[in-house]
Specification:
Length: about 260
């Protein structure tokens, strides 16, 4: 394993190699995840941010397993709001799951067990909260992470890298009052923020559903609920709303149906 603190230097070196400077606006979620996969003994990584109104947004995912788990189109954890990542975020401590499949089928996360899009091939996951003191940013999912779960030094390295990622993200934040962009816990996200097309559609669809329901609080929940019930991804459901192929009626109207 890496000597103490060497892993941080390696992580920053890989970021620079990938064309990102940890102090600049060129640091994006995909690069942060790619650097994790390069430096840590894992198969994949995914980075998810906690947003207002109990929502989650995927900032990046690299690697097949993590891509399926935490891609904005089929993000099981973000959609149902439960799993090792949300648990780590809410509890403030890393969650190590040696056998993810058994944990899901065993009823640890009942909503995840019902999510048809959840990959069945996921094995070990270590979810680390991204936090600095009382500030909670989100979580880092490390997939195929047996060494991180079982080896003290690998686990320590992973926690150090999560701390670096937290620092990078917080350093890119500006006061919300000076930035009309997206917000995270009262702060506006800096220019490094790059949403995928599906993530932008999800936000647009949430706004459209809020108008249809005359309730912004219920919009995202209804969007997720429809995706869950139909087996579609959140991105597919949002795209249908944006394209006006799907409309959400108010509580006094019938259930949503595709628009002819």
């Amino acid at each position: 394993m890496n000597p103490p603190h060497t892993v941080v230097a390696q992580f920053l070196a890989v970021l620079r190699e990938l064309g990102a400077d940890a102090d600049s606006a060129s640091v994006h979620g995909e690069r942060l995840c790619a650097a994790c996969v390069r430096v840590l003994p894992i198969e994949a990584a995914a980075l998810t941010l906690a947003m207002p109104d109990s929502r989650w947004e995927v900032l990046g995912a690299v690697g097949g397993a993590a891509g399926r788990l935490a891609d904005a189109d089929a993000d099981a954890e973000a959609a149902v709001g439960e799993g090792p990542g949300p648990d780590a975020h809410l509890g403030g401590i890393p969650i190590r799951v040696p056998d993810f499949g058994s944990a899901v089928t065993g009823g640890r996360w009942p909503l995840l067990a019902q999510w048809d899009r959840l990959p069945q091939s996921l094995s070990s996951i270590c979810s680390i909260p991204l936090r600095l003191g009382a500030i909670r940013v989100g979580f880092l999912d490390l997939v195929g992470a047996d060494p991180v779960i079982r080896d003290v030094q690998a686990y320590t390295d992973a926690v150090r890298i999560a701390d670096v990622i937290t620092t990078v993200l917080l350093a890119a934040l500006t006061p919300a009052s000076r930035n009309g962009g997206r917000e995270l816990d009262g702060l506006a996200l800096g220019p490094w923020w790059e949403q995928s097309v599906s993530a932008r559609e999800i936000h647009q669809a949430t706004g459209m559903v809020a108008v249809q329901l005359d309730s912004s609080a219920a919009a995202y929940a209804r969007l997720v609920g429809h995706a869950f019930a139909t087996g579609a991804t959140l991105g597919e459901t949002a795209a249908a709303v944006v394209a006006r192929r799907l409309r959400f009626p108010s509580e006094h109207e019938p259930d949503p149906e595709p628009v002819p």
